[in-house]
């Protein structure tokens, strides 16, 4: 299945662009995709999944919905879905 992957801030730098279209096995979950991203992009290694769960402070959206409000890493992906990955954001004064 083909997925549209969108990256923001430092993850965009790691992926080399804002949007990447990539093929994944049918039946892949959000966790499967994130593990593949960690192994593919050096700048994401160890920053998406920590201790078997979604890394703290990052946001991952499937088709605009936060996966923590779905089935987390077990959220199924379907052909044509969009997965957006946001790193932690800090700042303000």
UniProtKB/TrEMBL annotation:
Gene3D superfamilies hit by this protein: 3.10.20.30
Domain of life: Archaea
InterPro entries on file: Beta-grasp_dom_sf, MoaD_arc-typ, Mopterin_synth/thiamin_S_b, SAMP1_3, Sulfur_Carrier/Prot_Modifier, ThiS/MoaD-like
UniProt-listed Pfam families: ThiS
Protein name per UniProt: MoaD family protein
């Amino acid at each position: 299945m083909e997925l549209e992957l969108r990256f923001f801030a430092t993850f965009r730098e790691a992926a080399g662009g804002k949007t990447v279209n990539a093929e994944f096995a049918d039946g892949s979950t959000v966790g499967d995709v994130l593990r593949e991203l960690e192994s593919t992009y050096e700048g994401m290694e160890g920053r998406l999944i920590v201790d078997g769960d979604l890394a703290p402070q990052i946001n991952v959206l499937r088709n605009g919905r936060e996966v923590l409000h779905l089935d987390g890493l077990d959220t199924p992906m379907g052909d044509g879905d969009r997965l957006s990955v946001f790193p932690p954001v800090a700042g303000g004064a």
